[in-house]
Specification:
The chain is α/β, with parallel strands linked by helices. It has 9 helices and 11 strands. It has 2 domains: 149 residues, 3-Layer(aba) Sandwich (D-Maltodextrin-Binding Protein, domain 2); 87 residues, D-Maltodextrin-Binding Protein, domain 2, CATH 3.40.190.10. The strands form 2 sheets. A 6-stranded mixed β-sheet has the order 2-1-3-10-4-11. The chain is globular, with a radius of gyration of 18 Å. The relative contact order is 0.22. The mean pLDDT is 93.
Length: 255
Amino acid sequence: MDRKIRVGAVSYLNTKPLIYGLEKGMMEKTVELVIDYPSNIASALLKDEIDVGLVPVAIIPEMKNHYIISDYGITSDGEVASVCLFSEVPVEDIKVVLLDYQSRTSVELIQILLTEYWKINPVFQTAELDFQQKISGSTAAVVIGDRAFEQRTVSKYSYDLGTAWKQLTGLPFVFAAWVSNKPLGNEFIQNFNEAIAFGLNHIDEVVKQNPFPLFNLQEYFTRFIRYGLTTANRRGLKMFLQKVGERSGKQIPFF
């Protein structure tokens, strides 16, 4: 390309290790970094406003062409801590679920889990700004990212979506992956992987640069979030996309 590669990443704490190397100047001559929340980054990738994005995997079926270009992503193998269903009543008593407007993957995931794992059929509503204040009575909400840590201190009931997926399927879950909408050269991909790995090899520095009183980030980055895209992760991703396809009535090609 005769310009920098436009790379989009989300603004949550769980992304900090993945973009640490880029923010430290690695690939500064070849990469332009854009930071936003997940659904905006997803939209930008679909519109070709960026070339690569750390995007919710639920957008893959919407892409004309998709390429997972990195060995890293945002995954869990059980409890993830920052993607949860919050309520004031037990899950079996929930009647309405508000869906986090910042997310796409968790919106699809919660609908699968409520049907197949918890076996209930609530009404789903798209949430608006500050929707957490509407969590009351039999109205619950999916809250993701940094706001979930605050909500954990408020809500009576918290149901972790990573845990529920693992119990349902026996597989890890992939929340986001580095996806491009066009082929990129092997040299770029190799350098990109090295830049991503740099942050994962300097977790202590990442934690120090991001003081956060509501949760132990050292544990979050090493125990709850898993950053490698393993073979098991890819099996979990394939199963998730198959289930999304079944719900939509479309056959979703996998890579």
